[in-house]
């Protein structure tokens, strides 16, 4: 590290910590740590929890699911169950497939649902037709499942559902609010898939990408029936000025009273395998090994992207000289309202806002990135930021403030060489920001 210029060495350190921490929450690693099924049951132990899941000796075992890391989870299931699997089908985002031998992977569009998602969902449902009480179904869910598992309700077209999704994503609505609307427009979300799987025994394994940690919000809860106190989707649209902007068919569908669904007693068990807290714990362990003191700025990061970025910048500036070098950590998911015509994602915009706030600060840098390896509709996971961004941007003939106003962080960071690329990571536990004060 001493042989490299300080800026390059700092970036290498931040990215190495980021990548190593992700390895602790990769799907196949999480599943393989659950233990091998024995005979007529699978005794699962994870993070202090124990689940005894029966496996009928004469029954079949199926694997279905969706999400950016569903392929990684499926890889772990194949390792544990091998030839005991009868069939399987998971839906992943384009480019996020894993090398599987028994479970089929179908790829579809994300974050906007598309026709491939519709076809893939239909194929997934065909995989589990004709289930009996002796059969068992493992459902794998991670972030991204809401867009990938597509089955619009009657009266709403795919195009209309895609338009609503796009409006909500650009509005600044939280993932919980977006998923509350998605549930009402789908035949498989909000418990719809669980009803399709009756009378089989169902085990849902999840990686959480929602700040609340509520299992029924991950992937819009296909195996978790909506409760009686579900959120009013019309109120959500109105909150963001979208009630009149969405198609009339969508308003009509959302206005219909929804009955709370009952979950089949004793036939469904669920286990969350990883969330951002587990990731932060891994970061602290790596930091200790590297001789760095680690401090949490916001381990439950939520709310406005710009506000969270400014908090991180302020925290980096405030580290006393005697406490440096120090690693500052934030994890969660912020919300970004997109008004400009640029290209980027919430992590790249986080980095841009933080860089502007750190202007002139020579002893701080940060990495902000999505743990799934993608940030918004770009090929980058996120971006690096430091107090010298303004100079690099000017050298490239760009104005950072103008690019920020257009939500054009990707093109800025591409020009300055500050993008972070990881490719698909095999997990999805929201976003991670690592800042270092030295």
UniProtKB/TrEMBL annotation:
Q: Which domain of life is it from?
A: Bacteria
| Domain MOFRL: residue ranges | 327-431
* One Pfam family hit: DUF4147
UniProt-listed InterPro entries: GK-like_C_sf, GK_N_sf, MOFRL, MOFRL_assoc_dom, MOFRL_protein
Q: Show where the MOFRL-associated domain sits.
A: 14-254
Checking PANTHER family in the record gives: GLYCERATE KINASE
Q: What is this protein called?
A: DUF4147 domain-containing protein
Species whose genome carries this gene: Sphingobium agri
